[in-house]
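[[Sequence with tokens]]
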Amino acid sequence: MDNKLNVCSKQLVDVHGVPIFSCIAEEWSQVESFEARPDDLLISTYPKSGTTWISEIVDLIYNNGDVEKCKRDAIFNRVPFMELTLCGFRSGVELLNNMKSPRLIKTHLPVQLLPSSFWKNDCKMIYMARNAKDVAVSYYYFYQMAKLHPEPGTWEEFLDKFMAGKVSFGSWYDHVKGWWEKRKDYRIFYLLYEDMKENPKCEIQKLLKFLEKDMPEEIVDKILYHCSFDVMKQNPSANYTTMENNLMDHSVSPFMRKGITGDWKNQFTVAQYERFEEDYVKKMKGSTLQFQSEI
């Protein structure tokens, strides 16, 4: 299996203009033809934007704050990664096809690659976005520890790739803007990572309203506690430590690294910051989407 994994680990393949892992590209037809159900809830993010955090929150909401129920399995089995296919493992599509409704589904796909059945069934969707500089830093460390990725090179080299959209799942700029525009026509709850860090209770209450769920304040407080970074970092069903070492090497960098806003200041040089900001303004021109890069 190691050899098979290595074959698909070091290469990104173009799928409709978006760089994707070769193992996903090889099975793309099963992703494209995936059958969503009307009561599915899709959780969509660009990588390293709080995916596991929001997934754990939603699973707790769906289980009325029952923490033990949410320890029933690892997060990647409770909220399957729809498009992921790994040699020797059940694909996300296969996991989901065997799940009872209502299903929680994770994706990193840009909006234009999402299977059409989600739009046809008018599924509810949560999109969580995080500021670009923190995403770039977090993604750089993730590239090193998650063995599916190509070698990231130096931080400078990786930053160039990130800015050019030559990383897995493509351009951050296109991703966040694409989902932002789509929210005008579909049931998409667009959530900002920084708002969640600043006032998680307020954002969870908005999320509950979107999900049409009532929850007593004490349960909301319980969810907030169990989904705090420090608690999740110690939770084997949420922190990916149960993932095999040849897939994720936590000794290189933990999956849950810092979970803060503004860590980019510890990584960017002044020159990199200035170049990034100039490029950012060009790429985000015309969008009403705005981020905080520190709190």
About this structure: The longest helix spans residues 132-145. The mean pLDDT is 89. The chain is about 45% helix and 10% strand. The CA atoms of residues 133 and 277 lie 9 Å apart.
